[in-house]
Design a protein that fits this description.
The chain contains 15 helices and 17 strands. By secondary structure, it is an alpha/beta fold. The chain starts with 12 loop residues before the first helix and ends with a helix.
């Protein structure tokens, strides 16, 4: 009746409503960040979301722990697929979204958005979940992870790990600009990008440096608590990726610095991501690392923490390839004195004892491990480890049931 009234002049009410809601030139879209990779996704998502929150945005976030709206968890479980992302994007209170984008959801349904403002790929490395859904090689996995880069908006930004060859090559598929990050600013990919005046983020001694387009910002690693003065290498990489993402979103540098300085990596804010506890004078670290790349990164970080004896508690995900399960204990057997293997609740298609047998095979040629035990049940394995700890020891617990295991550990620590 407004457009074509029975008498009088028609009026474009829809246009009037939209013009009232949005200023001229606005498209009504909110900033969207998508994060993919083999390891480091969840911490990068959480840190980037935290910076966006400090910038004044009401942030919706999805990751492998749940769906969060303005810091409140509204759904639990692995929520890194498009269904959870759509729940965030449709939420009336959200005006910025940071979405962990896992391969499984992309294969099932694609993406929850048509384009994103920033796409972050943390790494590909040796890959994960290979052998599932016809994704058998690292090259296959790269094709899936690259999807978010292909859907960056023309004026958006891809943030890519220059030191990871598979990730670095994704730059060719990006319709927008690219920021590379890596420890070494002289890496060929970084050096070329820097020479062209484009954005790079790298480590320079005790600082992280963000440089390009005529500007340079230095942030001391001492001001980024999650890196422990730069000792934890994989957290330095996560911080660099988050800095590049925040820069790509146009967040001011004072807010970026504040976010890095005040982000807390405890069991409440980043469950299962290098959560550290003090137990009777021993250092206890709980982490959800579950593939060879993650184990390598954890071992590298832990070697920088002094300890009298080193103990690790580990199981294996049954849906991984045999060689991936074996490889985890091959790495750990050279870095820890005591290895406690446990069979968890979810065998993911494996027969009882099958995963434990593969983990044992990985320890056959261990250079350091001199004590190996098998325990049934994750909590029993944790309790066994805690009962053996003495002051000055270090214990890495590779948890499976993240929330339940962290709650169990916290109770034990509180009553120690």
């Amino acid at each position: 009746m407004h457009l074509q009234p029975s008498y009088g002049k028609g009026r474009a009410v829809g246009e009037a409503i939209v013009s009232n809601m949005y200023a001229s030139g606005e498209d009504g879209r909110i900033p969207v960040v998508a994060v993919a990779g083999t390891n480091g996704k969840t911490t990068t998502v959480r840190l980037t979301a935290y910076m966006l929150t400090l910038s004044g945005k009401r942030v919706g976030m999805t990751n492998s722990d749940g769906v969060y709206i303005e810091g409140q968890r509204i759904d639990t479980g692995d929520c890194s697929g498009p269904k959870s992302a759509r729940n965030v994007l449709m939420h009336p209170d959200v005006d910025a979204a940071v979405l962990e984008t896992a391969r499984g959801g992309v294969l099932r349904e694609g993406l929850a958005f048509d384009r994103c403002d920033v796409a972050v790929v943390t790494n590909i490395g040796m890959g994960d979940h290979l052998g599932l859904n016809y994704i058998s090689t690292v090259e296959d996995l790269t094709v899936v992870k690259r999807v978010i880069v292909q859907n960056v908006s023309p004026n958006g930004m891809a943030v890519l790990n220059a030191a990871d060859p598979m990730t670095a090559r994704m730059a060719d598929a990006c319709p927008g600009s690219v920021t590379f990050f890596a420890f070494d600013r002289n890496h060929p990919v970084m050096a070329t990008h820097r020479a062209q005046g484009k954005r790079v983020v790298y480590r320079d001694g005790a600082d992280i440096v963000a440089a390009g387009e005529g500007v340079e910002h230095r942030i001391p690693l001492a001001d980024i608590p999650i890196t422990r003065q730069g000792v934890i290498g994989f957290q330095v990489e996560n911080a660099m990726a988050s800095i590049a993402a925040a820069w790509g979103l146009g967040i001011d540098w004072e807010t970026i610095r504040q976010g890095l300085a005040t982000f807390v990596n405890d069991a409440q804010t980043a469950p299962g991501r290098f959560n550290t506890f003090d137990y009777k004078g021993a250092t206890l670290i709980a982490d959800y690392g579950h593939n060879p790349d993650a184990i390598v990164a954890l071992v590298s970080a832990i070697e920088n923490i002094p300890a009298k004896r080193r103990m690790v508690v580990i199981s294996g995900a049954g849906d991984r390839r045999d060689e991936d399960i074996r490889r985890q204990t091959e790495i750990l057997g050279d870095a820890f004195d005591t290895v406690i293997l446990y069979q968890d609740q979810c065998q993911r298609g494996r027969a009882d004892g099958e995963v434990l047998a593969l983990l044992q095979q990985g320890l056959k040629n261990a250079r350091r491990a001199n004590t190996v035990d098998e325990i049934i049940g994750e909590f029993n394995a944790i309790d066994t480890a805690l009962s053996r700890l003495e002051s000055g020891d270090l214990c890495l617990i590779l948890i499976d049931q993240v929330d339940e295991a962290l709650e169990h550990i916290a109770k034990k620590v509180a009553t120690a």
